[in-house]
Amino acid sequence: MELIGAGRDADVWALDGTRVLRRYRHGGPADEEARVMAHLAEVGFAVPRVHDVSGADLVMDRLTGPTMAQDLARRPWRAHAHGRLLAGLQASLHAVPAPGWLRRRFATGNPARDRVLHLDLHPENVILTPDGPVLIDWSNTAGGDPAADTALTVAILRGVSLGPVRDTGLRLFLAGFLRAAPADPAPRMAEVITARLADPNLLPAEAHRLRRLARRTPGGD
Description:
The chain has two domains: 2-61, Phosphorylase Kinase, domain 1 (2-Layer Sandwich); 68-215, Transferase(Phosphotransferase) domain 1 (Transferase(Phosphotransferase), domain 1), CATH 1.10.510. The model has no long low-confidence stretch (mean pLDDT 92). It starts with a strand and ends in a 6-residue tail after the last helix. It is α+β, with helices and mostly antiparallel strands. It contains seven helices and nine strands.
């Protein structure tokens, strides 16, 4: 198999021209992730088709196209438009009620108001296929308050630094995202930053930037 992608806790291997194997490095089960993806496909949300799941292994369609992050690196002038596109994807996702079997995180307190949350929505998790954008990596998915999902995307983007020139593009991207964001992130921002800082995969530089953000956030430390 050919290694074609690697995240913070999983690797992606090409099985052939049409399928990939996504494997957790630490052996976490992928059953609920596969179930979420199947559920979203049933309601018409664009996700990779799942062929098989076994323990930590998930076999899915191999998608063709760059990630949104790769497209931004090549065409930085699209930053604002891509920010709005990401917000549109999130809005479509938040239209899907959270099924009763889905674990809850950042819950609203009213199960009928909980929606499917991605909880890792950023440009590297969007593939721009010829048929349209497809959202990948559903390992963090839960049911809960859409404001928390929006706040987490803001926290992820605020924690990144790409250098002075590319940071300008990142700010334009974030401005586009917030202009079209489906929910106000403010009510959940402090809570989300705290949760993000507890992530063992967080890099020290990201943690430093998030602590600075927390100090400027109402309700933060």
